[in-house]
Each structure stands twice: as structure tokens, then as C-alpha cells.
Amino acid sequence: MADFLQNGLITTLHDFAGAGREAHEELLREATVNSPIGLLLPVTASDMRAAPFERICEELTGADYVQQISVVLGQAPDVADYKEAAAKIARLGDRARILWTDGERVQRLYQHLDDAGLDLGSPGKGKSVWTAFGYFLSYSELQAYVLHDCDIANYDRDMLARLCLPLVHPSFDFEFCKAYYARYGDRLFGRVVRLLVTPILRAMMNIIGHHQFLLYLDSYRYPLSGEFAVTPMLARYNRIPSDWGLEVGTLSEVYRNTSLKRVCQVDLCPRYDHKHQILSEGDPSKGLTRMGTDILISLIRTLGSMGVVFQPSTFVSLRSSYLRAAQDAIRQYQADAVMNGLNYDRHSEETAVETFAQQVMIAGESFMRDPAGSKAIPNWTRILSFDPDFPQKLRTATEEDANEFA
Questions:
Q1: Contact status, residue 225 vs residue 247, Cβ threshold 8 Å
Q2: Which residues contact 322 (CB under 8 A, 6 or more apart)?
Q3: CATH annotation of 11-405
Q4: DSSP-assigned beta bridge partners for residue 73
Q5: What angle do CA 193, 197, 202 make, to 5 degrees?
Q6: Rounded to the nearest 5 degrees, what angle is found at the Cα of 150, between the Cα atoms of 201 and 391?
């Protein structure tokens, strides 16, 4: 069947190449009169200095339908990092502000919450996204918060337009939109999705049964994409993990807090290219191995919270079922690569699967020791009940940083 197939629990918005960037942006200019958009750009100091961020800033100068832009600068302890980032985004005008998470003002606000027993977890993308949601809450007119990564090498602002439109088009009623895309160059990328997430979901369905949550996750074509759009209300309710389980944790919260008919995924572009991480099979604290472990633990703990009972023997069966599903996937991807003239290193793919299989047991052991695990960052509903003015304090901190350092 042609690729207009709707074959999951959520709506899929395809790219038939019938409307281009100009048409999308014209629709957005009309829609955002009543539904303003806030764009969230999490970036580290090293990514801020890389070529993709420069390209993204240049492209965004033409995205005049975006009302507010929050560049969340993390892993940037020096004022020089802030000043360099400020110079790069100056072309975006007053609508763009740097939310400097390592700055003294924001750190004081974090400490204010920590003193009240509200644990925000360790620094990372999850904490940056959470902070930007709070900052955007100070702009009550915003109707959609949109996030994309800042290491997209082939960035085109139509990616942003396609991500925004499902949430603000007046005839739609979506509350959450997730991006999907193909990741390939001279070979297939997206190893964690291809060789871990999809096979482990299928394996879990073999062991647990066709649980609706697993079917829901399996409906996403690229569940680990770093791009999504969300309504302010859902952003207030969702709890955000601070580790590599951010993407899966976000999808879990969406499943918990809204109706599936309000959820969609959109084809963002024909091909997506960003930086690639090493597998790090010899060091499970780094790279894709660490990512895979955090994702597995997040999945298992979420299912446990839904009443699924796990025993030590469950993980032995799960590992065996995963290996069978992943090995079948390797056979499929090899054929796909050959048909499309791509390189395919079957040995490295097998190595990745063996590494991920080890992490299934490690994740299971971690769950049995501590089923609850580390807490997610408190949602914004709780923060506002403690300090209703906290979003405005974040906004004031960004403005004072800009006045002092920019």
C-alpha cells in the first residue's frame, strides 16, 4: 500500500510533496495571529560553535511566524560562552532570548526549588527542556511550544513549519506532534531505533501480550526523534526525565495525559542528518550503550507503574525474544540497504544487537533492585502550586542576563 497508510494508534501526517515551504509558512502566518508559537532550542556550548547551529540561526531569520525563541544554553559555564551565543542569535531580533542554565541567576532559581525539596535532577537536555517550558509559561499568549535539536546538519526551516502546523492549524485538534524521518547517508543510521527500540517493543508484546502502551509506542515511526510540539497545558502536566530516557519518557507522559486521537506524528523531511554517537560497547556509561540502558529502564518502569509484573525470569525470556526480533531486523535492513545502494556492515549491526541484549539484563536487574528508580523532574503544575511567579522569575533572569552580558 502507498505511504498514506494510517496503521497505528496515532495519526500519521505524511509528506506527499504537494505543498512546499512557502505554502506552509503562509498558513502559519495566518494561524499564528490567534495561536502564537514559542520555539525551544536546547544547545550546549560545543554545539553552539558547530556549523549546524550557524545554519539553523540563518534559516530561522525567515521564520517570521514564530513569536518567541528560547535558546537554552547548557554545559556553558563561562560568560564568554553566553556572549558568543548572544552574538550568533542577534540576527533573530528581540524575540530570541538565551536561557543560560549555568548562569548565576538561573542557578539561584534552581536552588530555590531545591531548598523546597523539589529535585530537578542533573543537568542535561531534559532539564533544559523543562526550564524552557517554564519560561514560556510566562508568555500566556503562546498556544504551542515547539522543540527541535541544534545539531541538524541539513536543516531547512520547512522542518520547523511542518512541525508547527499540526498544533496551530485552526481545523486541527492535536495536542502533541512528534517528528519522524529517514536517517541515512551512505548507510543506514538510527541504530538505537532500528536495532533496540522496535525489536524490544515487539519482544515485549511476545512476553507481555499486546498491551496498549506498547502498541502506542510501536505506532511511532521514529520514537527517539528530538523534535516535537506540545500545547502549554500538556507541557504543564507532563513530567520530564532528566536522563537518556527523555524521548520515551515524554511519549509515556503524553500517553498518560491526553487522548490518543489528539496525538500525531509528522514526516519532517526526506532525509535527516545530525551528529552520530559511538556505540561504546566497552563502556556502558557512554554512547549508545548508555542511551539504550536508560531507554530500557524507562520502558520497564513505565510498564511496572501500569501494573505489569516482572520477575527475574521475565528478563531472561525478554532477552531471548529480543535477540530473535533484532536478528530478524538485521536481515530486513541488509536487504533494504542493498536495494538502495547503501553500505551495510552486518558485523557492526550484530555487535550492536549483542551489546543491547546485555543491557536488557542489566536494565532488568536495575529494575528489580529499585522498581521506582530516580524521580522525574516535578511537572509545572506542582512548581506553580509552590511558586506561581516562578515562570516570571525565569523570564526576568533571562532579561537581566541579556542586559548585563549581551
A1: yes
A2: 199, 200, 203, 356, 357, 360
A3: 3.90.550.10
A4: 43, 100
A5: 130
A6: 90
Q: Give residues with Cβ within 8 angstroms of 140, minimum separation 6.
A: none
Sorted by sequence, the CB contacts under 8 Å of residue 182 that are 6+ apart come out as 270, 271, 272
Cα–Cα distance measured from residue 314 to residue 303, given in angstroms and rounded to the nearest whole number: 13
Q: In what order do the strands lie in the sheet with 37-44?
A: 11-13, 263-267, 176-180, 228-230, 144-147, 37-44, 68-74, 96-100
As a whole number of Å, the end-to-end CA separation of the chain is: 54
Output the pLDDT for position 114: 96
Contacts 24+ apart (CB under 8 A), 22-31: 24/158, 24/161, 24/162, 24/165, 25/62, 25/63, 25/65, 25/161, 27/165, 27/169, 28/65, 28/161, 28/164, 28/165, 28/168, 29/64, 29/65, 31/65, 31/165, 31/168, 31/169, 31/170
Residue 4's pLDDT is what? 87
User: What's residue 1's pLDDT?
Assistant: 45
pLDDT in tens, 88-119: 999 999 999 999 999 999 999 999 999 999 99
Q: List, in sequence order, every residue forming a beta bridge with 43; answer none if it has no partner.
A: 73
The x, y and z cell numbers of residue 269, run together, are 523531511
Give the closest residue to 211 by CA, choosing from 296, 97, 302: 302
Give the DSSP per-residue string, 349-368: HHHHHHHHHHHHHHHHHHHH
| CA angle at 238 for the pair 401 and 153, rounded to the nearest 5° | 60
**Dist CA 321 CA 122 (whole Å):** 34
| pTM of the predicted model as reported, rounded to 2 decimal places | 0.95
The segments of the chain whose pLDDT lies below 70 read 1-2, 242-244, 374-375
Three-state SS string across 223-261, please?
A: CCCCCEEECHHHHHHCCECCCCCHHHHHHHHHHHHCCHH
Give the pLDDT of residue 76: 95
Instruction: Give CA angle at 104 (127, 90), nearest 5°.
Output: 80
